[in-house]
Amino acid sequence: IFFIGRMSVSMIFMLKNIVTKSKRSFFTSINTLTKLELSKRNILVDERVSIRVLDVDLSHLIIRTKLINEEQRLFYESVNQFKVGDSQILDLDESVPSKGYSIPDSMGIFWSMKKIEDKGGYDFLMPSDVTKPLNFDITVEDFGGKVLCSESISRHYMSSGVKRIKLNHGRTRGTLFIPASQPGDKFPAIINLYGGIHNKNVIEEDSSMLASRGIVTLSLGYFGVDDLPRSYKTLEAEYFEEAIDYLLTRDDVMKHKGIGLLGLSKGGDIVQTLACLRPDVIGAICIQNGACVSILTSLTKNGVSMGELAQLNYDNVKLRSDDSMDISKVVLVPHLDSKLNIPIENFPGNVLWIAGEDDKNFLSVDFAKNAETRAKESGKNNFELVVYPGMGHFVRLPFTPLTKYTAHPLLPKGVLVYYGGEPNLQAKGQENAWLKKIQFFKKSLV
Which residue ranges does the record assign to the BAAT/Acyl-CoA thioester hydrolase C-terminal domain (predicted)? Predict the structure, then answer.
């Protein structure tokens, strides 16, 4: 009986070893040929890359994507877990992580990145120098942390041949981007107005990429940069008109349909006012999560205000459980017949209005629908409203990580504002909105 018992135990262990070896390991790669395959290693930031892991001897693995850029103070990382099928190939275009983002998208390893908090740095994954690419390291690991293979990819904010010109022309301050060109080439042109600044400079990432896609783009400063006022308490229409007139003097700009204006947040109400002021030279405007009223300050012309200010109710500020502030209901949405509304229905040019349903800076969708209703009632048929589910306040370049929390340019230092956004829906919305903006301006101005 003892002998048979010993034999049974031995057989059990032998069978267990056979079964274990027949399965792919959960932690350790037996096959040293596991390979990470990228379709491209140098791309523009709005371009997709296909990513596959080949010859995988694991049932599960981790893909870690990291950006460490000391010079530009950018420290970001994503960690996503995947289950590998019997084919021993993991195709990120078709696979949804078992832990991480929740849609099949090879670019998810980039847009799901989060700031590495103990490193400090900026709350936005945004370059301070668009002339230099950002380099990302991608590693494939087992669940024990062993690196099986790795690759690097460079993502560029300017295509070859694009010119970047720091502008100090008269009173105009900003950065001008010119598409790659041959002598005599002409391009549609726009002015890009953000509601904030980055590292004491105008935000350039959108403008450099718009130029990479064939549109002359001026990132125009109007506060907080160079010798401009630190905040936008006073905004003179003449300052913006000077920038418009400058673009129209350039030989590389198409002029017969005018120029375009692109405005995010506070920039959104500024471009509406300018469009109503200069319809003779402005052919199209795009508002991104803007209001249909002037917030905090309106433009002045010859020292006289061009409109009344939005009504504010600070009692509507909500302190969230994470100690951030929800200010979405501070700026009140006016009635359709209110004299506070900027009369965008009187602007003859094309209008594209982009609104995020989860914008927590203010009620972007309500403002947009107010403007859309007035446009329809006046017979304006070249007004397009696109509402994106799950999109927060910031409308960024495709595949850029969502920033839900950060400071506000007009609030005291240390006050954290919640701006909203659901990562998976934000990613879809940003990619679609980017293509729509390029098509809109080219169709309107060419």
Answer: 237-445
